[in-house]
What we know:
75% of the residues lie in helices and 3% in strands. By secondary structure, it is mainly α. The protein has a two-stranded antiparallel sheet. Strand 1 and strand 2 (70-73) form a beta hairpin. Helix 8 runs antiparallel to helix 9 (194-228). The longest helix has 35 residues, at 194-228.
Amino acid sequence: MQNSLQADLPLRDVVFYTLRQSILTGELKPGERLMEIHLADKLGVSRTPVREAIRRLELEGLVTMFPRRGAEVAQITEKSMSDVLEVRRTLDALCAELACDRITEEGLTSLKYACEVFEQCVDTGDVKKIAQADVSLHDIIVQATGNQRLIQLVNNLSEQMYRYRFEYIKDSHQHETLIKEHRIIYQSILNKDKDTAAAAAKTHIDNQKKAIMRQIRLDTKSRSLTEKV
Length: 229
């Protein structure tokens, strides 16, 4: 979790974004209890902005409230993950198709560079850097569509998507697959090959879904065994 709070935002917003980022990156893990006093002490604030942040996070589906137990980081369930990726799969395919027609030379240069940066980040093994490089790469494709309504829809899903993407990227066995998929997407957009671009975008999401589904089931089994002990 961030150790210092930014001064350019209202305190309640800074606390909200700090906790939100900690959840999205897995620093605050699914099922972890959110104790107001502990979080307030850690962030150096009163309990009021922490309480407000937890309520906002509940509205976003990142926190679950339980009677007598209080707030917990929401579990990554098969249903919630499937819902988000199902929509994102369709939107990503559309973005790739539109990018084939609308991306500029500058955009292509940026996309190629973003692929190279992603591969460099993979070499570092820094999961946060890899995740951010992945987001930046896909943002170039989304922006290339020039469709503001589509861009807004994708952005609305992006934060929820980040949580699942982060889980996927933590598995180093998937890194080479990601690199290959990015290269195919870039090459198909460069060649203005809409069918290949759309198919590659869908495959990109499908592989994430399969990998995350396996992880969710492993986590569920692990929790079940722990509860029985």
